[in-house]
Task: structure prediction
Amino acid sequence: MEHAIEHDHRQLGQELDLFHFREEAPGMAFWHPRGLAIVQALEQASRDVCRHQGYEEIRSPQLLRRHVWEASGHWQHFADAMFRVEDQKCDAALKPVSCPGFLLIQKRSLLSYRDLPLRRCELGVVHRDEASGALHGLLRARQFVQDDGHILCEPDQAEEEVLRFARVVPRFYAAFGLGPPKLALSLRPEHRAGDDASWDHAEAVLRGAAERIGGPLALQPGAGAFYGPKLEWSLEDRHGRAWQCGTIQVDLHMPRSFELRYVAASGAREHPIMLHRALYGSLERFFGMLLEHHGRHLPAWLLPMQVAVLPVDAAQSPAAEALRGRLAAAGVRARVDEGESLSKRIALAHERAIPFVIVVGAREVAAGEGALRSVGEPQRSLPVAELAAELARRVARPPLWDDP
Ligand SMILES: [Zn+2]
Result:
């Protein structure tokens, strides 16, 4: 039976004081402290995976002039979706993608085959001018952060590079309580850049990596981008909706249009294989999806405030403060709430979607304990050291990759 989405992320954004939108900036979120803290946890997860996989982070300008977007093809094919501006009497545009900035950095020096594979990532703020009727909170925004990473490599390194990325994808989504993802391969469209031999190689690279991971692979003939084929991972939320999130694509266009070359072992100057990859795609959209999937109960590791420590009355304040310090030392983000009646403070913690509450009364202080409450669990009194250890375990970020 069809039922309404019970967790509209825009509503939750207001209720939990995470973000809001307003008419002064259609499709561009105003992030409140608690919402931004979650965005930063998403960014940190992306950075940690990139560092683990051997990427170095870069940052490129927001505004680039017309000839850059002509080289990338955006000026010709993406004009309506770009925020075009005049910059010192020159045509320019806010970046809708970060890839050209990456290429302009790499073009500054002639690469050798010894530099490859080369991996760079950017958490770039991008702008795309969607029609106002198409906007939908964080899910369809005009400004968002894109976790675009790029790899330059030799043709015979490409499959290993795709595999390196693909292996991390399911574990990464599992940390957010999502998955397992479904994998699809989008093949050459009718109108495309590059010759057939390049497409044969690019498709074989992606297919080869997908087969080595195993599991079902859906083929999508004609669905590739004009510049190359791609692997796409999609996630299903609790409402049965599919979300395409992760992707890795071979780019047969940009290394040529930006005249990027490297010196091969033979001494010849060749175009490298260029891969684009993203785990989130848009961080905003991923956040919106998490809210609609989990409702008020996001994974605890993402939350800026994980535990509320509530002394029953002022006599237990010192014990509550000591417990907060102990939790902080164990890596748990906790606060002590005092003042209102205990039942009001418990209700407030629930309203703020703080997943754990510890009540500290005279009995708990005498016993060196705290009473732990969480949604869907009976209240339990535990010694303070055990509380800290258990909560540290329950709010820890799950591993984002398999060792090594
Ligand atoms: Zn890119």
Observations:
- Residues 117 and 153 are 4 Å apart (CA to CA).
- The domain at 9-60+95-294 is CATH 3.30.930.10 (BirA Bifunctional Protein; domain 2).
- The first strand starts at residue 19 and ends at 20.
- The chain is about 35% helix and 25% strand.
